[in-house]
Amino acid sequence: MSKIFIFSILWWLLGNPFLALIVLLVIIYVLDRRFVGMFPSVVKPLRRMSRIRALRRQVANSPSDMSSRYELARLLLERRHYSEARRWLEQIGHAYEESAEYWDDLGTALLHTGDAATGEPYMLKALELNPRVKYGEPYLRLASYYARQDGQKAIDVLERFRDIQSSSCRAYYMLGQLDRSLGREQEAKASFQEAVTIYRSLPKYKKRSERGWAIRSWLRSLF
């Protein structure tokens, strides 16, 4: 009702229903980004592309800068440019041999470029170094990969994830989605509900980044 009322006011002020609708959508988007986080950021991809360009210049001018190479590879993974990310990651392995995050990133890049035979052991190595690395999301990526080939193996990996008690709403949302894709409706609902429970226990500063995933999980548990 409130949206209809605001739309009517905007229509009256602007004299054009289409312009009023655009303004209303912008208002909803801004409020969501400020308080909820359901909608994707429009600015983040632009900032990421700008940062990638800057990092390309940085590594060209300083070939020994391992941290810039790694940051570049991670941003490329976010953009799903797996082949290029893999090339950068393979160049810096000697500097990150004890980093669980590195082995997960490299394993992910390999998994998405058709080299699962190498990528899978690297992701398992990441979990050996730190079972809670990235809130346990390597388990979920492996389960997603296994789900296309061996449902029982995917379920085994999901149960290993549950054992670590991750504090990430996003991770439990992903877990629920995987459970549902495997036809495990009760487990999926429990995962979505766990995401909501985790959200309620988070400190205030952490709730902002997890709120969108908690809301998605709540909606999934209902429908």
Automatic annotation (TrEMBL):
Highest taxon above the source species: Bacteria
InterPro entries per UniProt: TPR-like_helical_dom_sf, TPR_rpt
Protein name: Tetratricopeptide (TPR) repeat protein
Keywords annotated in UniProt: Membrane, Transmembrane, Transmembrane helix
Transmembrane segments: 6-31
Pfam family, one: TPR_8
SUPFAM superfamilies linked: TPR-like
Keyword Membrane: yes
